[in-house]
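Fig. S4 source data, part A: sequence.
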Amino acid sequence: MRNSFIAAEIASQPEVWRQAARLAEESASALPQSGQRVAVVGCGTSWFIAQAYAARREELGHGVTDAFAASEYPLQRDYDLVVAITRSGTTTEVLQLLDTLRGRQRTLAIIGDPESPGTTAADAVITLPFADEQSVVQTRFATSVLTLLRAGLDEDTEPLAQAAETVVGWQVPEQVQTRSQFTFLGRGHGVGLAHEAALKMREAAIAWAESYPTMDYRHGPKAITDENSLVVFFGERPAGIVAEVEELGALTVAFDEDPQLTLVRCHLLAASQAVLKGQDPDNPRHLSRAIVLDEG
């Protein structure tokens, strides 16, 4: 991982989070305002960040916030603002949705590439070129967008950036590396981040990874758990759940920290698993940096 893009991009997260927080101040009028009904859309990683933000915005009492895969946005609904997240600014489903909504609902696009078509597809745009990446596997763009949006909720994100300075140096424990099945469980805004962690494992490490709300684990998913499993918790852990998982033979990992920081640890885990398998963590099989669909 020493020479990979993803290693450098993971390590850069504390500083790019600070840049995202400063950008939130500069872009305050474009970001969702307290009391607005907001929908947030994206594909893949961007959808999971949308889920995390939607949960956090409602947790903090700023108003109704829904998250959708861009391809599944309910056109019959009305929102004060639709926020579209796309690193490349070329994601077909996102651009198609923004075109459909033009003149019908107010839209905001949050984009990594300032030269992309997405910069003219919405009523307003915020670009994060400092968070864009060369690796196909997203890490810092996703967390920087979430930091931007959280700062727009008047959260103080500097403690997150300070904590991340230590977290990016986390050494993945040897016993974690020996597991072959990975389950990520979250509560609140940790649910979307658990989904994103599982996606990182599937993308970078081509690993068997699943994710669920923590309380839903007992409703079927626990059947996959055995001595080959690693279960990672994002956020609050209900009484008895850790012991229950460990009784099944799984190794559990949990930290008393913001779930956004735990996601960074999972970035490191996914990258290290890829290297252990002899895979390129920057260029997973079957994937490209931007998903542009054929019109046909």
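Fig. S4 source data, part B ends here. The chain has two domains: 5-161, 170-276.
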